[in-house]
Amino acid sequence: MAYVSAVAFSLICTLFLWFFDNDFNIFNSGNASLSSFFFIAPWILLFMIPALTMRTLAEEESSGTLQWLFTQPIRISEIIFGKFLPVPVVILFALLTTFGFIKTLENFVSEGRQLDYGVFFSGYLGLFLLGCSFAAIGLFASSLAKNQVAAYILSVFLCFVLFYAFESLASYNLLGSSDYFVQKLGMQVHYQQLLKGIVDTRDLIYFAVIIALFLGLTHYNLESKK
To answer: So where are the chain's domains?
Structure first.
């Protein structure tokens, strides 16, 4: 599943950026930039990562092995990290497969000009942090659901709300001065800051808090089941 997901991520991005005739195609944009990649990649991860996490705990519970795990000399925190850590590894592997995009862009840069590698670094950092946040949310959803399908749907919904819904709600200007704080609750504004090449500690702390929050909620949920 891990290898299939990583290859599928790379293949979908490659088709949209280099082959399909659409607005994301780099040849159509005329710019030696990966802005199209950094736009579509979060949406692919939003659907891919819940598929990786939906089985982690939901399948354990449906098959009855979760109660067996509780009887072993293993702390709940160890169970959680054992389920969580492989997903960031898969995300990292999937992102590494797209580094060839940067090498390809180097062939299209005018002589005497260079690519902005700093923006590429912060963009990839943002994608990795976003993916880890989706993984923590997916693990939490899997701890709540009784089966894999329910875990997947709940995970996609929660990821969508945190990534896009807060930003969309703030754009309607319904809450006056509070719209700024509503926007800051969502992932998208923090991700976009990293896409600008700005590695702000506040954005890094935000993603760390999201990951810790949902892993903590997963721990609490497993404790209650135990």
So the answer is: 2-225
